[in-house]
Each structure stands twice: as structure tokens, then as C-alpha cells.
Amino acid sequence: MRKPFPLSWPLDWRRTEPRHRTPSRFYAVSFIKARDKLLHELRLLNAVNVVLTSNMPTKPNGMPYASSAKQVTDPGIAVWFVQPKIDATSHERVFACDRWVQPAENMWAIALMIAAIRGIERWGASDIVDRAFSGFNALPPGNDRGSVEVPPWQEILGMTAIVDVDGLAHPEVLMIAKAKHRMLIKDAHPDRGGSTERAAELNDALARAEKALAP
Fold first, then answer.
1. Distance (Å, rounded) from C-alpha 177 to C-alpha 159?
2. Under DSSP, is residue 122 helix (H, G, I), strand (E, B) or coil?
3. What's the CA gap between 134 and 105, in Å, rounded?
4. 156, 206 in Cβ contact below 8 A?
5. Is residue 129 part of a domain?
6. Tens digit of pLDDT for each residue in 56-69?
7. d(Cα 131, Cα 37) in Å, to the nearest integer?
8. Cα angle, residue 17 at apex, residues 14 and 22 outer, rounded to 5°
9. Per residue in 125-163, is it b (16+ CB within 10 Å) or e — as a string?
10. Is-contact 9 200, C-beta < 8 A?
């Protein structure tokens, strides 16, 4: 399961350099209005398992605190969700934006993009909608669409030797993985001198471990 903090940026998406970020024409949109607009558009998609990721501290419900929006140096937003399909299959999708200087602007931009794609369906071109959305499929870790290679979760969590020990059941290995993650994430947190990239790497490694070791 993805974590709302830190920002979980899609592996094959380029980041905007800070010097190239500018205020948008919707600069005055409030954080709460932008958040609610984005969630509304996702509901209209029948999106499930929505996780809004950013570098802003989050509430217990996973939503970022509005008061922290102006304190982050990286305003990027990436929203991950699953879109069920009529044929019983589903796809994890991701929309991300870091073009603008405020998190609210980037959330609003994503919401407008979703609304624009949905508009195509209302105009009767549903096949084009499917093609458009397929471009936002989330790539699995270690995908073969580019040069990015993700190390095994065992390596990232420092468990290469541990998981090779005979006799350990999956629940025991997962318990060790969670303990390793808790220990490492403390030093990786940006507030303690770490980096959002390292924290994201650790969170992704734990998510992959949970998927691999789930009963």
C-alpha cells in the first residue's frame, strides 16, 4: 500500500526543476478548494484506493495539512488510484504535477486534467478516453520501459542476508522488514537531515515486501 508521505513520484516521469516553476493563472485557488476539487473528480471516475502523495505532513486519514502547504520546498503532487473496469480488470493509475509553485496549484491542475479527459467521454468518444487513461497506468517497480532499475526490497531494507536464512516463514520475514523500515525511515525523514527520495525509496521497498510476503 502506498504511503501519503513522502511524495511518491512516478518512476518514468520527469521532474520540473525548481527554477522553472512559476505561479499559474489559478494561483489564488485555496488549498482546501483544490483538494476537494481533485477528490471530486476522482469520485466521478469511480476511483478507489486513492492515495494523494506529497511532501506535506499528513493527518491520520492520509490527507495533507493545509497549513503545511506553504512550508514545503517541493510542491509536487502525485495521486495514485485504482480504476475498476467493467470487464472485472482494474488498473492502478497515477497523475502527477509539479509545474507550479504551490501544492494547491498542482492539485488543481491535476483535477482540471481529469475533468478534460472525462469530457471526451461525454462527447461520445469513449474509446479515446480508454486510450488516454492507459497512458497514465502506473508502472510496476523495476519496469522495463526505460533505464530506471529499482533494487530489490531486501537490498534497500538491508535484509539480503536475513531473507536467505532457512526456516523463516513469510510472516516472520515481514515482521523483520517492518522493523527495519521503522529504524531506517527515522534517519531518512527530511526533518532529520534525510531526503524525500530516500524516504520514498524505503516506503516503496516496504510496500513491495508487504506484497511479496502477504499471506
1. 7
2. helix
3. 24
4. no
5. yes
6. 988 888 899 888 88
7. 24
8. 115
9. eeeebeebbeebebbebeeeeeeeebebbbebbebeeeb
10. yes
Same domain, yes or no: 71 and 164: no
Which residue is listed with cell 477528490? 39
- The rounded distance, in Å, linking the Cα atoms of 31 and 37 is 10
Give the CA count within 13 Å in the CB-facing half-sphere of 24.
Answer: 21
Are 124 and 77 within one domain? yes
Domain limits at 120?
18-134
Q: What's the chain's Rg over C-alpha atoms?
A: 19
The predicted model scores a pTM of 0.62
**Identity of the amino acid at 126:** S
Contact indicator for 4, 54 with CB cutoff of 8 Å: yes
Q: Judge if the upstream peptide bond of residue 6 is cis by omega within 30 degrees of 0.
A: yes
CA distances from 201 to 3, 7, 9, 47, 151 (A): 11, 10, 10, 25, 9
Domain shared by 97 and 191, yes or no: no
Choose among 79, 106, 107, 103: nearest CA to 93. Answer: 79
Report how far residue 97's alpha carbon sits from residue 79's, in angstroms, rounded to the nearest whole number: 9
Interval 141-162: pLDDT, tens:
433 333 345 678 888 888 876 5
Element (H, E) at 84: strand 77-84
